[in-house]
Write a structure and sequence with these properties.
heterodimer; A: 292 residues; mainly alpha; two-stranded antiparallel ribbon; 2 strands; 1% strand; globular; B: 293 residues; 13 helices; flat
């Protein structure tokens, strides 16, 4: 009885979470004329990769005629390259900034700690759209508009507060003795961090790095405003461009959207292992201590 | 004395390793923000050639008396309330399930996390395709089952805002589940063992053991979900584009339009700060609830 309830819940959750993803994938494996049939096919009648081929610049054909490559394929391919050029350095930079800060907030005692922590966290509470205006002007002045470097800077500022919070949680939950032992053994504070503590939180760091990469890979509004229609345009605005206009090719849109899900699916597969030992809640207690 | 000196070294080390982060944020986040605060008191347009005029609080007065902006704040609050309520429900359910041991749990965990890994803009786009009256998933199911004869457009003015909230909650729930699962982990093991002896099922355990412990993580989830939902724009932009009519014209969408379509930077910045005031007010309320025992 007990386990039957579990499986009912699990089935409901699976269906609910999968519906939109399934639907994009399902449409992406159909020819255009199949997509527009009424009612729509719940399962692709003749699953094929035609839309994907056209998305990446190849010819294809349906039962009736030859299909040209999508006119958007250069911006899709350029977008994938640009997204990688942006997301990889962002991940490295965020790690470089947040690991030391997370260690300091999680394990060291210093003045104005809570205030500093709170100020850093507020960085994530601002509406992106509010910050996009000053960034637009700022990067215009620095000649960084329409460049990958500008976007890298913005993404670091977006991701780093939350990741610092997560890192703080990792370091704070390590037993206090770990470090003391290393210090007794003659390590300097820096050596203790590099040789003992960081290896201990390495799995957490890996999870945080994946989250950071995904944040950059998925970000849309800054990419649109700061690199849209330029040569530095990343994948999300490239995908969305046809959606804004009418008559964007739905079959191409579903294929490129499905493609953009690949990192998300890989991330979910890796992150599920950390789902119970990532303690995201505890750092909040630094900001709002529970009153005893 | 000795103790004090040691503490100072610790403090110096702490500041030394935080400085890179602090400097980065100061220059690339707080400087642009102050710049934008100044911008909100000027008549700056997008284009940058013309003279900038200082206009004091005129942009704020104009924003506050702009019916479209007033309407958008109400739309935003309504959609946020719905999205947060739904996110809470979904994430509590998900967390409790993920906390259980059962066969196939790894698969369920992967799928449980998936929506948050999907970007907001693909969330918007894919829900649009699920809800549309052409090639929509729901219509296809209903038509195939013979429940309806002609397709329904779920994104009509009456329902669009609710489905926007649903789509956003779909995306956000895994994050909430993360937080709440964290809360479930601090429940002492003895309570579960005692319940096991008593033969309590998953629902009984929730009612008597987990529920009392969850207040804190539910509040954290509420704060985070509120902040995310109030500042979100991708889902609206992709799912409805603010329409039909102005039925899903959220505050963020109005700011986007004011700035990048009407090219009124000052007006956009002023509206941003007004939205920020609303956000801070709501966040303070949550934090007050959070710190109250």
């Amino acid at each position: 009885m007990k386990s039957r309830i579990k499986y009912v819940f699990a089935a409901l959750l699976l269906v609910w979470n999968i519906i939109p993803i399934y639907w994009v994938l399902n449409l992406s494996f159909q020819f255009r004329f199949q997509i527009y049939s009424n009612p729509a096919y719940l399962f692709a009648p003749t699953p094929n990769l035609s839309n994907y081929l056209r998305t990446f610049g190849f010819f294809s054909h349906d039962p009736f005629k030859v299909l040209n490559p999508s006119g958007y394929s250069p911006s899709f391919i350029g977008g994938i390259v640009n997204s990688l050029i942006v997301a990889l350095p962002v991940t490295a930079l965020v790690m470089a900034l947040s690991i030391p800060a997370g260690y300091a907030f999680g394990r060291l005692r210093f003045r104005s700690k809570n205030v500093l922590f709170f100020v850093i966290l507020t960085g994530r509470t601002l509406p992106p759209i509010a910050v996009s205006i000053p960034y637009y002007q700022f990067f215009f002045d620095l000649h960084l508009l329409g460049s990958q470097l500008g976007l890298i800077i913005v993404y670091v500022t977006i991701s780093v507060p939350l990741i610092t919070w997560v890192m703080t949680g990792f370091f704070a939950t390590l037993p206090p003795d770990v470090e003391a032992q290393a210090r007794v053994d003659g390590c300097s504070r820096r050596q203790a961090l590099a040789r003992v503590l960081i290896p201990l939180v390495a799995p957490g760091i890996a999870a945080a790095a994946i989250l950071t990469f995904l944040d950059s890979w998925n970000e849309f509004i800054f990419a649109l405003i700061l690199t849209g229609t330029s040569a530095a345009q990343t994948l999300p605005p490239a995908i969305a461009a046809p959606l804004f206009g009418f008559g964007g090719d739905i079959e191409i849109m579903t294929a490129i959207s499905s493609f953009s899900l690949i990192p998300a699916i890989i991330a979910a597969m890796i992150l599920q292992r950390y789902i119970t030992n990532v303690r995201l809640v505890s750092p909040v207690m630094l900001v709002v201590p529970e009153k005893v | 004395m000795e103790k004090k000196r040691r503490f100072d070294a610790e403090e110096r080390f702490a500041f030394a390793i935080i400085i890179p982060l602090a400097a980065f944020l100061l220059f690339f986040l707080f400087y642009p923000l102050s710049y934008s605060a100044w911008l909100s008191t000027t008549s700056q347009g997008l284009g940058f050639q013309q003279k900038i005029h200082y206009v004091g609080l005129a942009n704020y007065v104009a924003a506050l008396s702009d019916p479209a902006f007033q309407h958008s704040i109400i739309i935003s609050l309504q959609y946020t309330a719905e999205a947060v309520a739904l996110t809470l429900g979904l994430s509590v359910g998900t967390a409790i399930l993920l906390n259980e041991v059962f066969r196939g749990r790894t698969l369920v965990r992967i799928v449980a996390l998936l929506p948050f890994a999907v970007s907001e803009f693909v969330t918007g786009a894919s829900w649009k395709w699920v809800l549309t009256d052409q090639y929509g998933f729901f219509d296809s199911v209903l038509l195939n089952l013979g429940i309806i004869k002609t397709p329904i457009n779920f994104l009509d003015p009456t329902y669009a805002i609710h489905f926007t909230a649903i789509a956003y909650a779909w995306h956000l729930a895994p994050l909430g589940a993360f937080f709440i699962l964290g809360g479930l982990q601090v429940i002492p093991e003895e309570l579960y063992s005692a319940a096991k002896v008593d033969g309590a099922g998953i629902l009984t355990r929730f009612r008597y053991i987990q529920f009392p412990f969850l207040r804190y993580s539910v509040l954290v989830t509420s704060v985070v979900a509120t902040l995310y939902a109030l500042t979100a724009i991708d889902v609206v932009l992709l799912l409805t584009g603010g329409g039909p009519g102005d039925s899903t014209n959220t505050a963020t969408f109005v700011i986007y339009r004011q700035t990048f379509q009407l090219l009124d930077l000052g007006g956009g910045a002023a509206r941003s700060y007004l939205l920020l005031a609303v956000i801070i007010a709501i966040a303070s309320l949550w934090f007050y609830l959070l710190s109250r025992k």
